[in-house]
Every structure is written in C-alpha cells, then in structure tokens.
Design brief:
By secondary structure, this protein is an alpha/beta fold. The protein is 31% helix and 21% strand. Helix 6 packs parallel to helix 9 and helix 7 runs parallel beside helix 9.
C-alpha cells in the first residue's frame, strides 16, 4: 500500500486532541510534530499543568502553550495559534477539532470522553482498550449514527492484529488461529539457568532440557515450561483485554477462558497454535491466544508483535516460502505470518487519518460484543472490600481476568473487569469465584454503566 498516495488528498492538517499524556499520548504528540497531515495542538490531562508538561516534554516552548480552564480561554488561545493544555475535554470540544485520541486508560473517564467527543461530532481513536472492552461496540454504534468512527489505533496490538487477520482473510488464506506475544519476553540464560522477564530474574534449574520443542508433544512441553517458571507471572490482564477487542471485531474466540498463554519460541507458534487434532493446544480452529516469547539473550525479541497461523493449502508454494525463511509447523501444514512490532503513538497516525479522511475504522466497522473480560478472585474477599484498580497494567489486587461469552448485565452474571474496578463488594467473595454484577455497589449515574446498559439493550434485545 502506498500510504503517501492514500492520504495525498489531505490539503489541511487533521486537527487532533489527545486526552491522556502518558506514554502513549506523549508518543503521539511527539510524532505528530513530524507528520504534515496531522496537527495536534490540544492536550488534555487531569490538570492543564500536567497537559502542558507533555508539550514541554516534546520540546515546545512555554510561551507557545496556553493553560486553559474554560471554553472561552481555549477559543482565544486557538485564535492566537497557541497549543492548548486543558484539564477537561469539555473545555476544548468547541474548537474546530476532527479527531480525539482517548489514551487515558481510565475506564470511567475514558467512557465520558468518548461519549462527549461523539456528541460533539468528532471521530474517536480509542487507545484506551479498557473502555473498548466494556462498551466499544456501543461507542461504535453511537458514532455511526452521527456519521463518525470509533477506531482502535495502529501502534497497539488490537488494531494491528485485526488488520493482519482481515488481510489474511481478504487474500483467501484459511486463518486457523491468531494472537500476539506478551509484553515481556522470557529470556533464558543457559549458563546460569536463570529466566529473566520484566525486570525479574528467577532460577529455573533443568529448563534447558525444555528450551526447544524438538519432537515433543506440545502440551507436555508447554506444561513443563510453565511449571519450572511458576515464580514468574504468566497471565496479564492487558493481554486478555486486547484479545477481547480483537474477538469483538473478528469473531475469533478464546479456546479457554484464562487463555493458554504458553511460553514458546516464535518458531513453535504454528505447532502450538493449532487444534488438538493437529497436535496443537486448541480444542478447535479459530482461536486467539497469547504467547510469552522464549529466547536467548542474543536473540531478537518478538517485541509484543502479532501473528496469524494460516493453512498451507498449496504444498509447493509453501515449500518455496520455507526456503525463504518463513515459519512453518513441523508437519509443514501451517505457517505463521507475523508483524514483530507495535510502536504505540508513533504509528497511530494511520488510524487517525483513516477515520478523518476515509471514514473507516482500523477495527471492524460494526464490532459486536462477543466476549467479556471478567474478574475471578484469587483469594477470599470480604464484603466492603474496594476492588481498587491500579498500576501500569490496571490490575486489581486479589483478582485475575478471564474471557467468557458476552452477556447483558444481570444478577448472577459475571461483570466486566473494568466495570467492577474501583467499586465496593456488597457480599463476600470466595477464592476462585467470578465477580457478578450484583456483587458490587455501583453508582447508577456511572457513565460506563449507562453506556454498557445501552449496549446490552442494543445488542441483546429482550426476547
């Protein structure tokens, strides 16, 4: 694809507002200074001062940035050609903006930001997968009614994987499975029998015997690796969340609710990500999952990339491609096609431009609620406990996450992970129990709750 030709008709830069100036938002701001077709003069964070710091961090002089507290101040700063730092999206929605990049990662606030942007006639590039996981299909439905788009963003795994899956389908490949590598590699030092991952190092005596797949049965090899590395985390809520967003766009589903999440060498993926009938891990074809990239210190990372496993339907063609370095299964019946990168806000411009220029999403044009990301307790929790959500991965202490078939909110029905976060339990929860909608106290005026109830009514009409 010739991207310069794709956006050649843009004669005036697309005006963009970034909400949330953390790692993703800041990288978007930095890259937008290098893109002639995009202008990002507006940043919103918890306070105007925090948003202004993001502009300073990318080298903008303080006298080029106005800290605005009211719509009138923002309008005046816009007319003066200044960049605008605000503490509330309502302050800037009267400006001639075309796209909002929502990158707060905050479920409740992000839902409000997206809804307000849609009502103001903006496209929304929804980098906050936490919001997408609870109400993404509803936000997309509301945007379509306004002639606008809500899109996941290139640069993050959901949009990249949706693009790869649909690319394979458009070319007539049989997509047998798909997924992504986790955020953190498992790096094995054979000399010290130590495994390094995300700043942790643990002793893994005997792991060397399981480093390669060889002719071993994949299930036994995966289980042995997991057991030896039990001291390292092997499930991460963001991985499940991102694959849920992909499921809602593509129809590919999780094989098991907690995912398999094998520790695997990249070359093993087409063997592991296959049906059990073909010697793999899955009960059936059409599954999505995540793997932890196992490598030596001197080997390249998969870099949180994405992949599809496709059928090798024409043996001579794939024998030729094998000679060119493509990754095939041991029986030569499946191949992995992959994108070994995700570049955060540096790459998000294509999704912003596609929304504003072409009116299309980087995900499905009409995503459906197929899976819910839900919370399961890892220990007993008493009534009154607040399920406080925090940290870089927005985890809840005492909770793990799973993927289950989507269902409308109701008593006795598991509630979305990012809906229960930061809310109080109204009854005791036993270890291993799913948290249901009637287990939490939630303000009926919650923006996220209202949008989810609208989504349930739209996609699960009462029979």
């Amino acid at each position: 694809m010739d991207h310069l030709h794709r956006y050649a008709g843009v004669t005036q830069p697309i005006e963009v507002c970034v909400v949330g100036s953390g790692g993703f938002g800041r990288s978007f701001l930095a890259q937008s200074t290098r893109v002639r077709t995009v202008s990002t003069r507006v940043a919103v964070d918890l306070t105007p001062a925090i948003a202004a710091e993001a502009f300073a961090a990318i080298g903008l002089a303080a006298d080029k940035v106005a800290q605005c507290h009211t719509p009138a101040e923002a309008a005046a700063a816009w007319e003066q050609g200044l960049c605008i730092a605000a503490g509330d999206v309502a302050t800037v929605l009267g400006l001639p903006l075309q796209v909002m990049v929502e990158a707060t990662g905050h479920p409740e606030a992000g839902a409000r930001h997206a809804r307000l942007a849609i009502e103001a006639g903006l496209h929304v590039a929804l980098a906050s997968k936490e919001v997408d996981s609870v109400v993404g299909p509803e936000l997309s439905r509301l945007a379509r009614a306004k002639g606008r788009v809500v899109t996941p963003v290139d640069g993050d795994q959901p949009a990249l994987l949706i693009g790869l899956v649909t690319w394979a389908q458009a070319l007539g490949f049989t997509v047998l499975s798909a997924g992504k590598s986790s955020e953190y590699d498992f790096v094995f030092d054979a000399a010290t029998e130590t495994m390094h991952s995300n700043g942790q190092a643990v002793a893994v005596p005997g792991f060397g015997a399981h480093f390669g797949l060889g002719e071993a049965a994949v299930g036994a090899r995966v289980q042995a690796r997991a057991e030896i590395c039990a001291a390292l985390p092997q499930r991460a809520v963001p991985d499940l969340c991102e694959l849920q967003v992909v499921a809602n766009s593509t129809g590919l589903m999780a094989d098991v609710s907690p995912l398999h999440a094998p520790i695997a060498r990249p070359a093993e993926v087409p063997d592991l990500f296959a049906s059990q009938a073909d010697g793999g891990l899955f009960a059936r074809d059409g599954a999505i999952d995540v793997f932890h990239c196992l490598r030596r210190p001197d080997e390249l990372s998969f870099a949180g990339g994405v992949f599809v496993v496709i059928g090798c339907d024409d043996a001579p063609t794939w024998e030729l491609l094998l000679g060119k370095g493509h990754v095939l299964s041991r029986d030569r019946r499946r191949a992995m096609v992959y994108i070994p990168r995700h570049l955060l806000g540096l790459e998000a411009m294509t999704s912003v431009l596609d929304a504003a220029v072409l009116g299309v999403s980087s995900g499905a044009q009409m995503p459906q609620p197929r899976l819910d990301l839900v919370a399961r307790s890892t220990r007993a929790l008493a009534a009154g406990t607040v399920l406080a959500m925090g940290g870089h991965h927005h985890t809840i202490d005492g909770m793990t996450a799973e993927l289950v078939p989507a269902a409308p909110l109701a008593a006795g029905t598991p509630a979305p992970f990012y809906l229960v976060g930061n809310h109080r339990l109204v009854r005791d929860i036993a270890a291993g129990q799913l948290v249901c909608f009637d287990d939490i106290a939630i303000d009926p005026d919650s923006e996220l709750l209202r949008l989810r109830q609208q989504q349930d009514a739209a996609f699960f009409p009462a029979r």
